[in-house]
Amino acid sequence: MNRQAAVMGHPQLATDTSRVRRWIDMGESPRDPVPKVLAALFTERLGRVVTIEDLGFGRRGRAGKGQSADGLPWPPERTAAVLTEFTGMDLMLNRRGLVGAGAALAAGSALSSAMHDWLHSDPVLASDAPRFDDLRMDTAHADPAGLDRYEAAPVGSTEIDALERSVEVFRAWDAARGGGLQRKAVVGQLNEVGGMLAYHHPEHLQRRLWGVAANLAVLAGWMSHDVGLEPTAQKYFVIAAHAAREGGDRPRAGEALSRAARQMVHLGRPDDALDLMKLAKSGAGSEALPRTRAMLCTIEAWAQASMGRGQAMRRTLGEAEELFVSDRGDVPAPSWMQKFDEMELHGMQALAYRTLAEHDPAAAAIAQRHAKEALELRGVETLRSKIFDYISMASACFISNDPEQADTYARLALVSIGETSSHRTWDRLREMYRLTGKYAGFARIEDLRQEIQRALPKAPQGKGGAARGGSAKV
Rounded to 5 degrees, what are φ and ψ at 195? Predict the structure, then answer.
C-alpha cells in the first residue's frame, strides 16, 4: 500500500501491519488519503472498479440518516465526487488492459429499499446542491498517477450544447454497433463532466450538466452491460439515477433504474428486476410521459414472462399498448426516450412472448407476429436491435416446431452479428442454440449449429455474479 501511495503522490504515507489490524479488528477508519489509496490498490489488484464506499469507508461526517450500509443513497455533495472517482478508476483499468467481473451484483430489493424514500423526494437545487468549493477540494487530492481524471473548468451554454450533441452521437453508435467500441470514450466524457460539476454554475446550466451526466452514465452502464461488465454497469445505472435526481428529472432517474432491471432479467434474476421496476415506475413520478410509462411496462412484462406469469405479462403489455397509443406527442419526448418508438414496442413484446413461450409454447406464435412487425420497421441504424429481433423470431419458430423458418432467421442474425461488439447478442444466440438441439437430426439445422459454434466465443463463466438465465454453453 505504501508503494501505491507513493505512486499517487503521497510518499509520506507509512502504514504498518498493526495499523491495518486496527482497521480490520477494531473498525477504525483511516484518515485521508488512505481510503483513496486503498481503493486504487484494490481496483488494480482485482481488475474491477473498487470505490471508497465499496471498502466501507464513508466520507467523514457525511453519513446521512436513512442510508444503507453501502452508503446509498449518496448525499448531494457526494454524487459528482463518486462519479469522478468511479470513472477515473474505470479508465485506469482500461488504460492498463485490465477487465474483470469479480464483484457480486446488489440485489434489486437492497437497491429499492435503500433508494425509495430518497427518490420520491424532490431536491431543491438552491439549498441541496453540492458544496462546490468543498467538492473541488475533496476530488482534487486524486492524482492522475493513481486514477485517470480530466481537468475541467466551468462551462457555458455553448459547451453544454456540444456535450448534449455528443451524447446523441454516442447513443446512435451504441444502437448501431453495440457498446464495446465506444465505451471508453463515453466513460472519459463522463469523467470530464464530473470535473465540471465540481464548479458552481447558474442553476439552469447546472441542471443541464446533471442531465448530461445522467445520460452519459446510462450509456456507460448500458455499454458495460453490453460487453458483460455487470457490476460496473449496475454502478453506472445507480450513478445515473443520482445525477438525474440532482438535476430534478425524476423520469430520467426512473428510466436509469429500469436499465438495471433489464440487466437483472438478462442475468436470470427476474425477481430482482421486479423490485427495481416497482421503484422505477413509482420514482419516475407523475411527470413521466405516457410513452415513458409504456416503456417501463414492457420491461416489467419481460420480467413477468421470465417467471412464467403469463396472465400478469399480458395485462402489463396491454397497459403498455394503451399508454403508447395515448401519447399524443403534444409534449416533446426527452432525448433519451426518442428511440422508444413503435418498432421498439413490438421488439419488446416479441421478446416477452418469446420468453413466455419457454413456459407456454402457445405464446410463440404471438412472439413471431411482433418480431415481424419490428423487423419491417427497423433500419440499419438499429442493427443490434434487428439482430435481437431475428433471434427472437428464430427462437419462437423453433418452439413452434417450424425449423425451416427458424433456420432462415437464425442465419440472418449470423450474417450481422459479427458487425457488432455486443456480448448480449452472443448470450441470446446461445439461448437459441439450446433450442436447436431438438432438430439436430436435420441436415440444415446441424449445419446451422456448427455455424453458431464457429461464430460464438466460449461461454462466459459466472459473469456478473450470476449465470445468464436460460442460456446454454456451446
Answer: -65, -40
Residue closest to 136 by CA, chosen among 213, 201, 72, 74 = 201
Q: Which residues contact 19 (CB under 8 A, 6 or more apart)?
A: 30
> What 3-state class would DSSP assign to 374?
helix
Longest dimension (CA), the chain: 71
Amino acid residing at 151: E
Residues 266, 471: contact at Cβ < 8 Å? no
Say whether 29 sits in a helix, a strand or coil. Answer: coil
The SS3 of residue 335 is helix
188-235 confidence digits (pLDDT tens): 999 999 989 988 899 999 999 999 999 999 999 999 999 899 999 999
- Kindly give, in sequence order, each residue whose CB lies less than 8 Å from that of residue 432, ignoring residues fewer than 6 positions away: 391, 394, 395, 398, 410, 413, 452
Cα 340 to chain center, whole Å? Answer: 17
As a whole number, the mean pLDDT across the chain is 81
pLDDT tens string 325-375 = 999 888 888 999 988 999 999 999 999 999 999 999 999 999 999 999 999
pTM here is 0.79
CA atoms within 13 A on the CB side of 34: 16
